Amino acid sequence: MPRFAANLSLLFTECAPLDRFKAARAAGFQGCELLFPYDHAAADLAQAAEAAALPVVLINTPGGNWAGGERGVAAIPGCEARFRDEFDQALAMAGALGAGLLHVLAGLAEGAAARATYVDNLRWAAARAAASNPALRLTIEPINGHDMPGYFLQDFAEAQASLAEIAAPNLGLQFDAYHAQRITGDARAAWDNLDKMPLHVQVAGVPGRHEPQSGDIDFPAFFTQLDTGGYAGWVSGEYHPKRSTTEGLGWLREASRS
Ligand SMILES: O=C(O)[C@@H](O)C(=O)CO
Ligand SMILES: [Mg+2]
Q1: Where is the active site (predicted)?
Q2: For ligand 1, is residue 119 a contact (CB within 6 Å)?
Q3: Which of 1, 61, 88, 244 is most buried, judged by most C-beta within 10 A?
């Protein structure tokens, strides 16, 4: 059975941010991820995570002006200096929280210049992370273009090609089953077609991005597929609860029993 983490940016939003850690632990999660922890003092978040015995397993690099449409800058030509500044901020936050994974957001971009910028920035980031925090691993995540129009990385083949070209041991794939289903039409087949084991997995139901319980993806079969394939990382619930978070945790209880 996989180890389950709660995405505290989307789950337990009934509670204040620092109270979500204890709520997630009490509900049966073993870890958590925070999309954008940057509005909080790292020490406060670290203390809340420790008090709840709920490790922070993943954070994202800064998204920028999210309300204004930004989604990170790694693939945006001309933003290299900003990328480096924000990456260093993310490295410091990951270190302070003890997070083992850092998802590098690509941003809204397209074309050959964007791809070259993306690969160069990721190569730089992988070397920078290896020098400052050897335990940290970086991820890239294909995100579907319906939910995030114009996002640079919308394709698994493209993600794998970039990873192969950079060939950094601390850089790998983040497989979000929700996006995989929306991009390919079959998340479980997309998993089987990967050339390397991903570093992180996220789950949500399709359609609606609600609990990973019903809809187009057979989650019990997917969790078994992860186990039998030897996936030993985290599986994070990254979804919009249909009602309250705790009312929708039948999927976690069921998966934890099997
Ligand atoms: O799937 C997603 O949207 C996230 O994992 C993410 O990091 C970008 O918001
Ligand atoms: Mg995701």
Answers
A1: 141 (proton donor/acceptor), 238 (proton donor/acceptor)
A2: no
A3: 61
How remote is the CA of residue 141 from the centroid of ligand 1, in Å? 8
Q: Which domain holds residue 122?
A: 3-257
- With contact defined as beta carbons under 8 Å apart, do 104 and 199 qualify? no
**158 phi/psi in degrees, rounded to 5:** -65, -40
Question: Strand 234-237 vs strand 200-203: parallel, antiparallel, or unpaired?
Answer: parallel
- The tens digit of pLDDT for each residue in 85-114 reads 999 999 999 999 999 999 999 999 999 999
In this structure, which residue's CA is closest to atom 6 in ligand 1? 35
Distance, CA of 145 to CA of 147 (rounded, Å):
5
Q: Element (H or E) spanning 103, and its range?
A: strand 101-103
Mean residue pLDDT across the chain: 98
Amino acid in position 187: A
Using an 8 Å Cβ cutoff, are 114 and 147 in contact? no
pLDDT at 30: 98
With a 6 A CB cut-off, is 200 part of the ligand 1 pocket?
A: no
The structure tokens 């970039």 sit at 162
**Could you tell me how far CA 149 lies from the centroid of its own chain?**
18
Reported as a single tens digit per residue, the pLDDT across 198-237 is 999 999 999 999 999 989 999 999 999 999 999 999 999 9
CATH of the domain at 16: 3.20.20.150
Q: Which amino acid is at 154?
A: Q
At a CB cut-off of 8 Å and minimum separation 6, what does 76 contact? 83, 107, 108, 109, 114, 117
Number of domains into which the chain is organized: 1
